[in-house]
Design goal:
about 10% strand, alpha+beta, single chain, six-stranded mixed sheet, 21 strands
């Protein structure tokens, strides 16, 4: 039997593939069930991941409590952290039950799947307790017989399991001085975490000041097992994105691409739930940052000559991927489409080359803005000096959101802004939308998602200001408006000397066009069977040990990836780019050279165990959609022409007075 993940360091596996055999065993000798596993070829997540999260909470909570006492604050005695799990809900007033997803803080500490639970962690000793509702025997016919308490104790790796009606007795027996409960506001949604409560809680001293901030801080830096779990979600979601790319044809509807993505994630990776509302936005709809909502449910027709933006990600065991692609519906870039696309790609690669511990997210956002403006100038949309453009804040017109965000058990993971612990939200236009301004640390997982949007209201606002309008070429803008927007989003983990890209998708224009035409992706040679150990050792040496456990992501599958020889040349190019960035020699007039593609991981060929991918549609021309031309507006219809007309009218007045405050003062608005 090959060693389990983590055994080389004397620890049991926290997350490993369900390879059949070699399962972790309980003290009774029987196989211990994983916390989460969806069967053949899906990831097996063990209780050790959540045990480590609970140990981290104990450590950070003790540190925060000690620091508060040293600062002279009036604090309550350190006691027991109490969390209330999520509850099942019905669809309004019906008896149709919604698919349950565990509350994120509870999932982080316990990984429990069932609703209606409560959990506790003794911050003095580290002891963990799980409390279950007693199931009425009448429900056995509908939901099955309730498992024993020993089953839950073994499955979730907690010290003790009791029923909910025993909470008062148990807490009195262990002499709880304080119950620490959640009470805090999510910096992204504005929603408040629900404090735990139970019948008899009035018998105890309750503290609402410690737990929320401590748990948010816990979730900022990911453990080895968490990173490997996020790597798994990326691997599956990337394969699904490639399947969507290969199927893309003019005449398809946006929801068909969404459906193919969801099908592939569930079929390949056992991912039942999305990490967020899927976005498939073609043409001008790509200028809507959160298109795909109930009022616009990815229902547009994708036309020949349009670009389509796909922001799609699923989650496994509550940990998700957040990935965005943009490409032409017909598989071939026009000159204007390529210009905008490469502006975004150049910004993304510049940020990926610059990420390392010690740099701030705000600095990375500024770098992405500069590179975007350089790319837009190269594409002909902007004219003038890039420094002058930055001084008036025009970058926020084209990218009205942050360059990236923390990622983990929530798509926009918590911990971005914690009072008195992290840098405050920037007030500068554009940077004010950042979901965190933290200094990067090893083990953080974040997205890198620069973008360019041609949003009519924002462009109209900019064109009313001579300080901004002078940089925009109106003829090129009018020509490019139907593109809508371009966003590229990868998920990366910060390492000791840079970052490791967990997302493996075609990004170069040539690669995108080749894959859409049917080329293989990934471009590595996949080998199985004998000889794997030698190849695996070489790959490990190349990847190094920037973050412990990253080099063992390949343990998620029983394959070895042999990189193409051309990688060596691209590694040299990456080193040259990084050196140039450090010296700041570039004059910001030419796009950055492409970085080396990261070592990536993919499933072995699926043909051996699965039927060929289903083709939902024939190629263009082989399948007609009667009446489709009557329900869609042509890309050259009135909105674009009207905006172009307004552009010409607004900018015809030379020397017009500025309208409204300078962009540096415009830090209000929604945090997208």
């Amino acid at each position: 039997r090959s060693p389990r993940l983590g055994e080389r360091r004397g620890r049991p596996a926290a997350a490993r593939p369900n390879s059949g055999g070699g399962a972790r065993r309980s003290r009774s000798g029987r196989d211990a069930p994983p916390v989460y596993c969806m069967g053949h070829r899906t990831l097996r997540v063990g209780a050790e991941l959540f045990q480590q999260n609970r140990r981290r909470l104990t450590h950070i909570a003790r540190r925060c409590h000690t620091e508060a006492e040293a600062g002279g604050a009036l604090v309550m005695p350190l006691g027991v952290a109490l969390l209330q799990g999520g509850t099942s809900s019905m669809r309004y007033d019906t008896d149709v039950e919604n698919i349950f997803r565990q509350e994120s803080f509870f999932a982080y500490l316990f990984g429990a799947l069932e609703p209606g639970l409560m959990g506790a962690v003794d911050l003095r000793t580290g002891m963990s307790l799980l409390f279950l509702p007693k199931q009425d025997e009448a429900y056995a016919a509908w939901t099955g017989t309730q498992r024993s308490r020993s089953h839950y104790r073994q499955r979730y790796g907690v010290d003790e399991v009791y029923y909910l009606d025993e909470m008062v007795r148990v807490f009195k027996e262990i002499q709880v001085p304080t119950l620490h409960v959640l009470n805090g506001v999510n910096g992204d949604s504005g929603g408040r975490a629900r404090p735990a409560t139970f019948e008899g809680i009035s018998n105890f001293v309750v503290d609402e000041g410690l737990l929320y901030d401590a748990l948010c801080e816990c979730r900022v830096v990911k453990s080895e097992a968490e990173i490997e779990l996020i790597a798994y979600t990326n691997k599956v979601c990337c394969a699904a994105h490639v399947a969507v790319m290969r199927e893309m044809r003019p005449g398809m509807y946006e929801y068909e691409s969404e459906a193919r993505f969801l099908f592939e994630c569930y079929r390949r990776g056992g991912m039942r739930s999305t990490a967020y509302t899927p976005i498939v936005a073609s043409g001008r709809r790509a200028a809507q940052l959160h298109y795909g909502h109930a009022g616009a449910p990815n229902a547009g027709l994708m036309r020949d000559g349009e670009m389509v933006l796909l922001d799609l990600g699923c989650e496994y065991c509550c940990y998700g991927a957040d990935i965005t692609c943009t490409y032409p519906v017909n598989g071939r870039f026009t000159a204007d489409q390529r210009g905008l696309y490469e502006a975004v790609l150049g910004a993304q690669r510049a940020v990926l080359a610059a990420i390392r511990p010690g740099v701030s997210m705000e600095a990375m956002h500024r770098l992405s803005e500069r590179q975007l403006l350089v790319g837009l100038k190269n594409a002909g949309l902007l004219v003038g000096e890039v420094d002058d453009m930055l001084s008036v804040g025009i970058a926020a017109i084209f990218m009205p959101h942050g360059m990236g965000h923390l990622l983990g058990i929530d798509t926009h993971d918590v911990g971005g802004y914690i009072k008195d612990q992290t840098p405050a939200r920037p007030r500068r236009a554009g940077a004010c939308y950042l979901r965190t301004a933290r200094t990067l640390q090893t083990g953080m997982v974040l997205t890198v998602e620069p973008a360019v949007y041609l949003i009519e209201p924002l462009l109209s606002k900019a064109l009313r200001k001579q300080s901004m309008a002078r940089f925009i070429d109106l003829k090129v803008l009018e020509r490019m408006l139907p593109i809508g927007g371009v966003r590229l989003e990868d998920d990366v983990v910060v390492t000791r000397d840079g970052c490791f890209n967990l997302t493996n998708l075609p990004r170069d224009v040539e690669d995108v066009e080749a894959v859409m035409a049917g080329a293989q992706w990934p471009r590595e040679v996949i080998r199985t069977g004998e000889g794997s150990a030698a190849a695996d050792k070489g790959a490990e040496q190349e990847l190094g040990e920037s973050v412990e456990g990253i080099r063992r992501v390949r343990s998620l599958t029983d394959i070895v990836i042999v990189e193409e020889k051309e990688k060596e040349a691209r590694v040299v190019e990456q080193a040259q780019q990084t050196a140039a960035l450090a010296q700041n020699d570039a004059d910001a007039t030419s796009p950055a050279p492409p970085p080396s593609p990261p070592v990536q991981y993919s499933h072995p060929p699926a043909e051996a165990s699965h039927p060929p991918p289903i083709r939902l549609h024939a190629r263009a021309g082989e399948l007609e959609r009667p009446g489709s031309e009557e329900v869609e507006v042509a890309p050259t219809d009135s909105p674009t022409a009207q905006l172009a007309k307004r552009v010409r009218e607004l900018t015809a007045q030379e020397g017009a007075a500025e309208n409204g405050p300078a962009p540096e003062d415009e830090a209000d608005g929604p945090f997208v």
